[in-house]
Amino acid sequence: MPARLPIRTYPIPFNEEARLRSLLGIPGLTAQNEALFDSICRATRELLGCQVAHISIVEDEGQWYKSVVGYDLGPMPRDTGFCAHTIMSDQPMVVPDLSKDPRFARHPMVVEGGPQARYYAGVPLVLSSGHRFGSLCGIDLVPHEAPSERELSILTELGRAVVAALEARPPETTAHKSDEIAKSTFIALIGHELRTPLTILFGSLQLLELTLGKGANPKLLTGARKSVDHIIKLVETIIAFSDASTGELRLNERHCDLGDILDEVAAMQLPGKDGAIKTVALADDSIDARIYLDPDQIWLALDALILNAINHGGADVTVGARLVDGGHIEIDVCDSGSIGDHVDLAELYAPFVVGGNIDNRDTRGGLGLGLPLTRKLVELHGGEFEVRAEPDRTRAIIRLPAWRTQMTETKTGE
């Protein structure tokens, strides 16, 4: 059996590719330090009463520091810093005691054997383009009370001063071809997500026309209604939580019951491309859990997987959830189909690539253009997404980190 993907310890912004490209255009972003940035870090340390303050730059797989005061820090992997979480929002991130926050309780910088950091307060560094590329933060080895609103306001202004200094020189002219390609591909992804339920809706209505006079088929009516629901939710989600200028999608996280989401998905009865009604069953070993996430986005990801399985997969489709090593949550959609030889599973995980050529839609095994969107939504939650071809079935697997089941009900995610 293939080895499981490692569970990531940090979320990935929905617009990660564009965010990384924006780093290349920051004129003052060099490894050479300047006294100005050290001064800002010293002011941050004094403001927050912390032992350490730094300006971090979050790259693809790691982060480095434009300035550090109070501790010797060198470049490190992205999962051993805290700032990968800070860049997920325009708001400050404050953690009074890192050891008591489920997101960081097992973090290598927090546990015994590391520096045992306890307090973190940081603000994201936001470019004039709207992309967040790093943070200005204070860290201490003892817990603190949360900063006052005034202190956070000053910290935010210091962060803006960092960005102003880095952007002071006019950026060099750069080609935007890759951005245009990313935009056109994103449009293709959303177009697919709209066309798939429309195709199902159209097929359901055609079949209803053929049965006029024989009584309405409730399954077809349900399928048509659910397709309309899918389109409405998709459009409302994109409008409510997208930033057109940066291609960003933000989460609206809250506590909910995973079982309720799975029950809704398992209730789906839709016609496939051949017009035959397919149903979705809840796996016998599926569990329920109180979980902290964006239920609309997770529902959208599961819905895309279900629609792919119904349209391209085998006759039997199931959905379920279970606990895996370390208390992580694994959700999968299985169908009894097989993946064609033309599908390159390795390419599935590349940004906006779908099983090979983007023009190849007839994947016949549960794969479709909705999968890169699903991958983006899962990574936005700090999780991992995998499609696994097994001898008698295809599994689309979503893994979410254990801390999402350990957040207290009063946690606001700040």
From TrEMBL:
Keyword Ubl conjugation tagged: no
GO function terms (MF aspect): kinase activity
Enzyme class: transferase
Key words of the record: Kinase, Transferase
Top-level taxon: Bacteria
EC assignment: 2.7.13.3
Cross-referenced SUPFAM superfamilies: ATPase domain of HSP90 chaperone/DNA topoisomerase II/histidine kinase, GAF domain-like, Homodimeric domain of signal transducing histidine kinase
Domain Histidine kinase positions: 189-404
Catalytic activity: ATP + protein L-histidine = ADP + protein N-phospho-L-histidine
PANTHER family on file: GAF DOMAIN-CONTAINING PROTEIN, SLR1143 PROTEIN
Protein name: histidine kinase
Originating organism: Tropicimonas omnivorans
UniProt lineage: Bacteria, Pseudomonadati, Pseudomonadota, Alphaproteobacteria, Rhodobacterales
